[in-house]
Amino acid sequence: MKKNYFLLSLFCGLFFNAQDGQGFYQPKNSICLSQEQRQNIQEEISNNRKILKSQGKLSENKKLDHPLFIWPVTKNPNTKYNHVWSISNHVDHNSAYPNKLQDWNCGTRTYDTTDGYNHMGIDIFTWPFGWHMMDNDVAHAVAAADGIIIMKSNGNYDRNCSFGSDNWNAVYVQHGDGSVSWYGHLKNNSLTSKIVGSFVSAGEYLGVIGSSGNSTGPHLHFEVYNNNNQLVDPYSGSCNTWNSSTDSWWENQKPYVDPKINAIFTHSDLAVFDNGCGVQETTNFKDSFNTGEKVMVYMYFADLPVGKQINLKLIRPDNTVAYNNTFNNSNFYFASYWYFTFQSSQFNQYGNWKASVTVDSETVTHDFVYGANMNIDDIKTTKRFSVINPIKNNQLQIFSKNNGNASKSKLEIFSMEGKLVESKQVELKSGANLIDVKLQKLQNYILKISNDTTQETFKIVN
Ligand SMILES: [Zn+2]
């Protein structure tokens, strides 16, 4: 794993301006564990097992079927990421080396080294902003199946970007049949507080994905042994000859190419993906923009096939579409991004906007506010109406420039989250109209006035 970012050429074309483009992230391989480290771990596991068995805390039934795993990576429930990972390396089934590679699907999404190491696990890297994710506890390693913690390693430096002799932080879980799963490279001091000998259930938190040990960037190394202590590749595929063709260890085996929308975010400026070894990226995340500011929308993908259609929309506070662009993905990468810059002229309504990206049938949406610094103590005027802020005495004041005729209009008031909170039919006569509303004090709302001929939107404040 490493952070090695290549900015593809910035595109100029029909829908690109100077600050639109794409790029990708290519994690570099890391040896994950030296042979000596692996041997030491095996010895410690073996000792721990004996102790735990003698204490009656560990039993195994080798006659049981092997567990069926769930995915060992999940996200912090509070994050705005849709997905937090992609795969850089599978297990190498070709015992020859170097550069003699074969993964379970007969591809080469794996690696080996000149001194004879064939990758023995699955490397699941965090994307985008792996260091930022690590610092914010965004991506978690979780138990792939029920089991007993049989070993924990903590206290090791977790911001490595190259091969070294550091030990990793890791949790090791033994399952009911005696098989064991390893979760390595975890963030220092992030490990589950459960002690060795404790039960963990499938999906239970084990630690934050970091870059401890022989690692070139934040990723989880997931390694599995069966109850005879033989290495297992959980995937069933025609080039995994260790398993029968139907014997996947996954409850739901993910496809070899697994396209994902990892995120759509808004930024104040270009994201800086590489600030040097172990240094947090400059995300330039921004969700609340002042009038006059540009908005940069980034979409982050994993495994997106060439030619896959990507649709980006900007949606105004009143749910009309301000921007709608479909384009094709041009290259395959394990991790990639596209970005577009929108100038302030695009934002002709103030309030809660949405940026949404759709690939196939999946849509991921990101909320942001435009016009955060708008002077709220103000009269908002359009061709047809003026609305006075703030609302006084629960009465909305609307001036209609309606040439004498009252017009039947529909008033809808939305919260800044876009939820309809009040709706009524009114006659707006020419001049001043006072309309009773029941809104919370000191809150901002969006008022939409619609009639046969017009539809206008105002930000209002109670
Ligand atoms: Zn690895």
CATH fold naming of the largest domain: Glucose Permease (Domain IIA)
Which ligands are bound? zinc ion
Number of structural units classed as domains? 3
Could you give the distance between the termini?
53 Å
Overall SS class: mainly beta
Number-wise, the strands total 29
Low-confidence stretches: 1-16
Largest sheet: 8 strands, antiparallel
Strand content: 35-45%
CATH H-level superfamily title of the largest domain: Glucose Permease (Domain IIA)
Shape: elongated
Average pLDDT confidence is 90
The portion of residues assigned to helices is: under 10%
Compose a concise summary of this entry:
The protein is mainly beta and 462 residues long.
Topology (elements, then pairings):
Elements: E1 5-7, E2 21-25, H1 35-54, E3 73-75, E4 85-89, E5 122-126, H2 130-135, E6 139-142, E7 147-153, E8 170-174, E9 180-184, E10 199-200, E11 205-208, E12 219-225, E13 231-232, E14 260-267, E15 288-289, E16 295-302, E17 309-315, E18 321-328, E19 336-342, E20 351-359, E21 362-370, E22 379-381, E23 385-388, E24 395-400, E25 407-415, E26 420-428, E27 431-436, E28 444-450, E29 455-461
Bound molecules: zinc ion (ZN).
Zinc ion binds next to loops.
Question: What do you see in this structure?
Answer:
- With 462 residues, the chain is mostly beta strands.
- It has three domains: 35-232, Glucose Permease (Domain IIA) (Distorted Sandwich); 261-370, Immunoglobulin-like (Sandwich), CATH 2.60.40.1930; 379-461, Immunoglobulin-like, CATH 2.60.40.3080.
- The protein contains two helices and 29 strands.
- The chain has helices at 35-54, 130-135, and strands at residues 5-7, 21-25, 73-75, 85-89, 122-126, 139-142, 147-153, 170-174, 180-184, 199-200, 205-208, 219-225, 231-232, 260-267, 288-289, 295-302, 309-315, 321-328, 336-342, 351-359, 362-370, 379-381, 385-388, 395-400, 407-415, 420-428, 431-436, 444-450, 455-461.
